[in-house]
Amino acid sequence: xxxxxxxxxxxxxxxxxxxxxxxxxxxxxxxxxxxxxxxxxxxxxxxxxxxxxxxxxxxxxxxxxxxxxxxxxxxxxxxxxxxxxxxxxxxxxxxxxxxxxxxxxxxxxxxxxxxxxxxxxxxxxxxxxxxxxxxxxxxxxxxxxxxxxxxxxxxxxxxxxxxxxxxxxxxxxxxxxxxxxxxxxxxxxxxxxxxxxxxxxxxxxxxxxxxxxxxxxxxxxxxxxxxxxxxxxxxxxxxxxxxxxxxxxxxxxxxxxxxxxxxxxxxxxxxxxxxxxxxxxxxxxxxxxxxxxxxxxxxxxxxxxxxxxxxxxxxxxxxxxxxxxxxxxxxxxxxxxxxxxxxxxxxxxxxxxxxxxxxxxxxxxxxxxxxxxxxxxxxxxxxxxxxxxxxxxxxxxxxxxxxxxxxxxxxxxxxxxxxxxxxxxxxxxxxxxxxxxxxxxxxxxxxxxxxxxxxxxxxxxxxxxxxxxxxxxxxxxxxxxxxxxxxxxxxxxxxxxxxxxxx
Length: 503
Hints:
Number of helices: 19
Number of strands: 0
Low-confidence stretches: none
Radius of gyration: 23 Å
Helix content: over 70%
Number of domains: 1
């Protein structure tokens, strides 16, 4: 049943991420063509600054999910209601604090960081962009955590597929009809407000949540142990654009956004594909099925490294040709940045391959034991990025992200291997070495021997297909040589799930 839920969640999640990537490429392209890089840069910059408020809810999602695993496994509806109540009360405070932050931020940003736009325009844009974030905090976050813990991520994946497509249609129509950027963003905000409202409605209908019980306020005390993890995640996700905004300008923010949109899309696809495994491991840990966890972790680890070995080598080869095609006709800044594309892709790869180790630490509730590593990751990223951006620009912030991601990945691997699932760290080194070897081999073959043209979209698609096929062949070969038994177990497990589904 766990495997079946994981596969359903993965299929629905991947479907959403594919839609999100496609739609995420369409709208920024239209904004670049109709409004220019400055408008694309300022909207991205504002969104990243507003995301700072996410730090206020840091830790609550992790500890709530960890507590919900046990309540759901034991079918304890009272405890479930207490956890949901505590989480929602906390998120109501976050939503209120977010409102105050928006007011202060709109004044400061329009005064000090937006000299190229009028105060009224900037303040209005900030308020419009902030509405959907407020809705997420006040209406949807608590119930999204509940659905995730119950291995029902497919519910909000389906909801997001619908709203993402609707948003693209609405925004595109508004752009082609000649409306300004403020109207376009308002249309998007109103559509995305449907997400938290529909998630809340589904949870209320399908769970017996008793709002009369006393909330489990002890949960809020535990959240501080998980804060470091979310701070690190926030820093790695948002620091680069914030630093570029402060120490550079919105044109470089626009360049970064073009690459980062793809990187974040790839990261989400991989994490969505494996998202269902986290809840499954959470249930195993709640039932103290450690031997089963160790057996399934090898398969989980193999899946993640297999995905990484196919996706990231292809990305490194095709990234710059994509950027050239995507920004064709845009001449206010150079979007072809080869070295930057390599560094940011490898940084993303390390952020993804650490997921299995991070998930096991999270479901075990070992937030306090690993929080110092999270703080170190944030400090490393900020310090190197600030120094790097002043000397190397875009490449500097990418280096900061790469070093921080490598550090945190290694820290997770060492801690998990010594304290939860006892195993040799050599296994991680072996996986990583094979992954990096495949990436180097694909780049050498594609750039030195095939050297395919990418001057049109059809040529780019053909070249990307060849790069992907080459990555698949090399990954399949290495899996057969080095992980034959684990690969067989993975195939058997998948076939068993399909047979149960057909039955």
